[in-house]
């Protein structure tokens, strides 16, 4: 249909309502079908000789009536009446993203549907789960998760463990419970940007400690403790973000010995710890009295669960409980129940296996596409650390990537303020929506890396 055929009059009914009603009539008559894209606000305003504001209000009114839906960055579309208004529009994968450290896209719908159906079968329990509960969470849920984690080599105690709204929330709770404004926090020389943001919000002094191929260097940690008298040290000993370094058993023991000597706690971020099928013992296994352990189910199972866990040494636990109560009173018992159904049904192990298999396939593609690159990765991890060729400065590489629409993360994001960033980038092989999308992103990346320097310098 042509939109110039829509009759509008200058009577008592506002023009935007007339336009919304006209759209409704066209949809009812079949002239506009589900999925049809409507003209932009400006284009329709020009066709009808009305203001852009009139069209904007008309589209908003049509959306309120459930006739159309606005999709961010895409436009306004006729809604399928068979699909609930609240449902999320499925987004197409960006073929140029290697940026975000998210789990690979796998079909979780059957597994989640079975878990939701199991939850819905227990009507009395379901009603109880929708009531206010203790910020400590259900003891049964904590026992179920602790048992599952122990089977995967992470020794947590259900009496001391607490649920959180994701692993980053666990880090936030730990910092708030253990630190005061002005305290010094040690971290790896390259570290998780979320940690830097949280430290800034809490007015903590961040001091970086040297890394090597096996993670945080014990001698450097000891020197930093002597110099700065820190409150605690934040570290990621398994699949470090961004370098993927993993501390061996001896290195972990040496780091804990330094913490004991200087009387500081180790804040162990184990958010990637479930990904490797084989890994060294978590720090919390080796000395639970010296370690604040943070992990989550988002990376291993599904980010939408938004469920993490935190264990602190016994005397400090009450501070974290108070923090949970102050933040949100409790962590959703409905959510923790759903996650524990996944655990008890064996679905959690199934999802973890699927994620590992998918990542092994993806890193095979990466290795084939970038055979000469200085790239460090773990075949079951999400991200890799790419050191740039000597002829390719970081700034010029990032310009070239932006020009091609390639999304990846610069070393600058992982570097504490006031310190130099290496010429390197983090690439997340997990981010593209499919293997084909991964191949497309890798083709762009390989093209940038292979471009020869002109006159001794990289040119675009």
Number of domains: 3
Mean pLDDT: 89
Strand content: 5-15%
Residue windows where pLDDT falls under 50 for at least 5 positions: 85-93, 453-460
Enumerate the strands of the largest sheet in spatial order, edge to edge or round the barrel.
3-11-10-9-8-4-5
- What is the CA-atom radius of gyration, in angstroms? 26 Å
Percent range of helical residues: 40-55%
Tell me the CATH topology of the largest domain: Aspartate Aminotransferase, domain 2
Seen as an oligomer or otherwise, the chain set is single chain
What's the shape?
A: globular
| End-to-end CA span | 46 Å
| E-strand count | 15
Within CATH, the superfamily of the largest domain carries the name Type I PLP-dependent aspartate aminotransferase-like (Major domain)
In the CATH classification, which architecture of the largest domain applies? 3-Layer(aba) Sandwich
Mind describing the biggest β-sheet? 7 strands, mixed
InterPro entries: Aminotransferase_I/II_large, HTH_trans_reg/aminotransferase, PyrdxlP-dep_Trfase, PyrdxlP-dep_Trfase_major, Tscrpt_reg_HTH_GntR, WH-like_DNA-bd_sf, WH_DNA-bd_sf
Pfam family, one: Aminotran_1_2
Protein name: PLP-dependent aminotransferase family protein
Organism: Parahaliea mediterranea
């Amino acid at each position: 249909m042509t939109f110039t055929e829509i009759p509008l009059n200058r009577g008592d009914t506002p023009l935007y309502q007339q336009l919304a009603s006209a759209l409704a009539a066209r949809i009812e008559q079949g002239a506009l079908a589900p999925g049809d894209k409507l003209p932009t606000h400006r284009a329709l305003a020009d066709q009808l000789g009305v203001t852009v504001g009139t069209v904007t209000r008309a589209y908003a009114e049509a959306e309120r009536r459930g006739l159309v839906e606005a999709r961010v960055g895409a436009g306004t579309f006729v809604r399928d009446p068979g699909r609930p208004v609240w449902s999320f529009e499925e987004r197409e994968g960006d073929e140029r993203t290697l940026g975000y450290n998210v789990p690979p896209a796998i079909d979780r719908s059957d597994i989640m549907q079975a878990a939701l159906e199991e939850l819905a079968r227990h009507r009395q329990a379901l009603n109880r789960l929708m009531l206010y509960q203790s910020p400590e969470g259900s003891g049964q849920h904590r026992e179920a998760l602790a048992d599952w984690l122990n089977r995967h080599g992470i020794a947590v105690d259900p009496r001391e463990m607490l649920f959180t709204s994701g692993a980053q929330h666990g880090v936030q709770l730990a910092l708030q419970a253990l630190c005061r404004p002005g305290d010094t926090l040690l971290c790896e020389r390259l570290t998780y940007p979320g940690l830097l943001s949280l430290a800034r919000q809490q007015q903590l002094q961040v001091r970086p400690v040297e890394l090597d191929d096996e993670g945080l260097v014990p001698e450097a940690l000891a020197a930093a403790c002597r110099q700065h008298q820190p409150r605690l040290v934040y570290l990621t000993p398994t699949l470090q973000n961004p370098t993927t370094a993993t501390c061996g058993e001896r290195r972990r023991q040496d780091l804990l010995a330094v913490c004991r000597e200087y009387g500081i706690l180790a804040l162990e971020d184990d958010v990637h710890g479930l990904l490797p099928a084989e890994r060294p013992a978590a720090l919390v296994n080796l000395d639970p009295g010296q370690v604040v352990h943070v992990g989550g189910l988002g990376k291993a199972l599904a980010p939408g669960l938004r469920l993490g866990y935190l264990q602190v040494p016994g005397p400090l636990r009450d501070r974290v409980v108070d923090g949970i109560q102050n933040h949100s009173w409790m962590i959703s018992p409905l959510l923790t129940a759903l996650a524990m159904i996944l655990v008890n049904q064996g679905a959690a192990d199934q999802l973890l296996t699927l994620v590992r298999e998918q990542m092994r396939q993806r890193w095979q593609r990466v290795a084939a596409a970038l055979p000469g690159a200085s790239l460090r990765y773990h075949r079951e991890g999400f991200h890799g650390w790419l050191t740039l060729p000597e002829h390719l400065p970081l700034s010029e590489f990032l310009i070239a990537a932006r020009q091609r629409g390639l999304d990846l993360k610069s070393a600058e994001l992982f570097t504490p303020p006031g310190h130099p960033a290496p010429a390197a980038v983090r690439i997340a092989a997990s981010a593209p929506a499919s293997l084909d999308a991964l191949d497309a992103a890798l083709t762009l990346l390989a093209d940038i890396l292979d471009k020869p320097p002109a006159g001794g310098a990289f040119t675009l």
